[in-house]
Amino acid sequence: MxxxxxxxxxxxxLGAASARTLLEHGWQVDLAHRGERxxxxxxxxxxxxxxxxxxxxxxxxxxxxxxxxxxxxxxxPADAAVHGRLVGEVGSVVVISTAxxxxxxxxxxxxxxxxxxxxxxxxxxxxxxxPTVDAVDDPGYSPQKAALERAxxxxxxxxxxxxxPGAIHGPHSPALREWFFVKRALDGRERVPLAHLGQSRxxxxxxxxxxxxxxxxxxxxxxxxxxxxxxxxxxxLEIGQAVFAHLGHAGEFVLLEGxxxxxxxxxxxxxxRPVVLSMAAARRExxxxxxxxxxxxxGAAIDWMLEAVxxxxxxxxxxxxxxxxxxxSWFDYDAEDQALAR
Length: 342
Ligand SMILES: NC(=O)c1ccc[n+]([C@@H]2O[C@H](COP(=O)([O-])OP(=O)(O)OC[C@H]3O[C@@H](n4cnc5c(N)ncnc54)[C@H](OP(=O)(O)O)[C@@H]3O)[C@@H](O)[C@H]2O)c1
Description:
- The chain is an alpha/beta fold.
- It has helices spanning 13-24, 56-63, 81-84, 141-153, 179-186, 207-219, 236-247, 280-286, 294-309, 314-317, 319-325, 333-341, and strands spanning 4-8, 28-33, 47-50, 68-71, 92-96, 160-165, 167-169, 191-194, 204-206, 224-228, 252-255.
- The radius of gyration is 20 Å and the shape is globular.
- Bound molecules: NADP nicotinamide-adenine-dinucleotide phosphate.
């Protein structure tokens, strides 16, 4: 009999990639979303369901009897409640958390890091047994995700796989960080300064790799928490090189010692210390093999974004890039040129 998957957030970057992987493996897929974005053409085989994640009754009705529920839209402990209502009614539940739940050995975490001192000190690589943020009353993103994880694991009998992705990239991304390099290639920038000698590593996650983990967790229900990142983690320099290679741009990277100075050399992966996650548990528990490295998978994301931007203003087409990641300040070429001239 055909297995049925429900994806809450089905038209987003993770939902779409997971749907495609599941369809390719013979699953029937229901894409639940509010309808603000269209259903990607390549998912015509899937069923589109209009629903708001906050309507627990509608979520319960749709998910009952599913073999797999992928929840891309759980952010706080209260979001675990609907899964509690579905114990015994679904085969496997996969909930997307984040790599930023890890608590540094200095007691800090990514959301509150604003200097080298407050940047979390984390082992390299981080495995899933490392402590997570335990500031339940803090309304921030990572404390709430960590509390959500605990709430899910507290639901007795829930076959839940919690995935912790890093910086996600893929087609349908609302905020592709690689735009930092893509736009420089489009603008013909010949020299790109990179702080920390371009060696910063902040784990990336190709949506197709996360999708493969979703499929495996769907086929092997269990109660587990797994990192969900590209393996190996690329350096910022390698990310830039991959983007330029895909676009055939021959720009040079100028590697600067130390942190960015007045923003020059800064980039979306510039971190004081590495945030590198181990994928050993996924390999061990699910027999996971990555679909591809960052370099092998980034091209599809770039091509999709270039087509999506078209002739439009990228800031209007992708407001989350500016609003959430501060991309509006990424392209101060005058400051960059002056610093490089010195
Ligand atoms: N972006 C990253 O780098 C990153 C890193 C680590 C973890 N994460 C986690 O990844 C998850 C986000 O997944 P994503 O990147 O695939 O998201 P996304 O690309 O922004 O897509 C969100 C999807 O959810 C739908 N949606 C949004 N609000 C909804 C609601 N209230 N009810 C029903 N559908 C709704 C959207 O469609 P409509 O708007 O049409 O409803 C869309 O299908 C989050 O849990 C986030 O914490 C993200």
